[in-house]
Amino acid sequence: MYKRIRNQLDGILKARENSRGSCSGSEHVPDFEPHRHIRLLTFNIQVGINTSSYRHYFTRSWQHVLPHRRRFENLDRIATLLSQYDVVALQECDGGSLRSGYINQVQYLAEAAGIPYWYQQLNRNLGQIAQHSNGLLSRFRPLDVTEHKLPGLIPGRGAIVARYGLKEDPLVLVLMHLSLSKTAQQRQLGFIQELISEYRHVVLMGDMNAHAEQLLTRTPLRNSDLVPLPDTAHSFPSWRPEKALDHILVSPSLEIRQSGVVSYPVSDHLPIALDIALPRGYLETF
């Protein structure tokens, strides 16, 4: 409790300074372990709001602006799930504003889940009202992490690129939250396709606001050969999943061991999980 209050006070004092995303640093993060399979998760957490009905979009809409005492309880439940994974892509996080109690939710979840590396990308800065962000949590030290603003008529969408393993032939993870507009998605996926075009081992993770069939046949990803989860992997809405909007798409070089939707309704989206193993030839280079 003391630590939480202290963090809140620190956040209030520094709120005007937090105009950009932030990172944990990698000093105490273990090296990448290419010999093991990697447990991946993508989760749109809706800034920690527990939504279990369409009516909650109205009755709990005030929580997108103001703090709520139960938000930390929901974040703690989310952290319990995240603790079971190696690399996590988070969407709709708050980077430390009034509604989150001036707590960086990416950092909070990383610390609560015991995951040593975290990176917060601030995509839409509304000052003390809201700090719309994406997040990366990782048990392994990445080679590097870069962030990109995605194109669109309305700014505020972004992607995080994390590279692991060999510099000459890395495993590349791209974490993203795409726009609702199909026109904007075309531009954003064209940008993403350019980012990944030169790599062999690629994973795209995030809330893509479209079904896999559309993403892989009607957008610039159509020539990428990425492998999706089954069309039945519905993640939205969490209380009655009917749409497959959240995805983990992987290169054919990566062996999929387990995959599916995680039944963990603490947001309006359900999380998507996938375990991968790097190709044998890649391991022999280490």
UniProtKB/TrEMBL annotation:
GO molecular function, one term: endonuclease activity
Gene3D superfamilies, A to Z: Endonuclease/exonuclease/phosphatase
A cellular component annotation (GO) from this entry: membrane
GO terms, biological process: GPI anchor biosynthetic process
Keyword Nuclease on entry: yes
InterPro entries associated with the record: Endo/exonu/phosph_ase_sf, Endo/exonuclease/phosphatase, GPI-anchor_lipid_remodeler
Chain ranges of the Endonuclease/exonuclease/phosphatase domain: 41-269
SUPFAM superfamilies on file: DNase I-like
Record bears the keyword tRNA-binding: no
Keywords: Endonuclease, Hydrolase, Nuclease
Designated name of the protein: Endonuclease
